[in-house]
Write a sequence for this structure.
């Protein structure tokens, strides 16, 4: 493998520099680049997590849209996971094993949040239709309590389990190929 003239390198005999300054004797050298490769050095976890959260947003919006239409679909979880992995890689420089695991965690949290947000929207719509003056943010904050008091915990949990199961099913091949 020959170095290009602008790339830094180190030869087995200790000589390092650029290809333009390499010794031109008839000796054979093994070339190894000393430029950094982000896929080998690992990812930046903090930037990757930020990217994963941003990448999960479109899938959460899809989750809400499908929920509004009365569906629970694995495709929304799949979009959450793909967006998280795509943006993790773009923000951190690489999608390594810790990146995939981080994206799985972000996806699980995003699905939980999307499910809570879906319920909050329904509760808000109900309250306003009944004539209550409700602030959406207050409803969102109190949604877990309202779900419990309205005895909707079973339905909420069932939606969450179905969502997680469909997401796991739809993402399994993609995730295992990245590990």
């Amino acid at each position: 493998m020959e170095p290009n003239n602008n790339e830094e390198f180190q030869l087995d005999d200790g000589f390092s520099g650029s290809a333009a300054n390499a010794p031109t004797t008839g000796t054979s050298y093994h070339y190894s680049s000393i430029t950094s490769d982000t896929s080998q050095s690992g990812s930046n976890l903090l930037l990757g997590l930020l990217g994963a959260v941003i990448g999960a947003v479109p899938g959460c919006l899809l989750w809400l849209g499908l929920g509004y239409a009365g569906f629970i679909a694995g495709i929304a979880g799949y979009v959450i996971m793909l967006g998280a992995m795509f943006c993790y890689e773009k923000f951190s420089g690489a999608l390594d094993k810790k990146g995939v695991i981080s994206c799985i965690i972000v996806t699980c949290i995003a699905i939980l949040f999307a499910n809570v947000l879906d319920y909050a929207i329904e509760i808000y719509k109900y309250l306003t239709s009944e004539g209550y003056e409700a602030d959406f943010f207050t409803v969102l904050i109190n949604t877990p309590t309202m779900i419990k008091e309205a005895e909707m915990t079973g339905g909420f949990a069932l939606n969450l389990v179905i969502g997680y199961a469909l997401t796991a099913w739809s993402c399994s091949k993609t995730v295992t190929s990245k590990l």
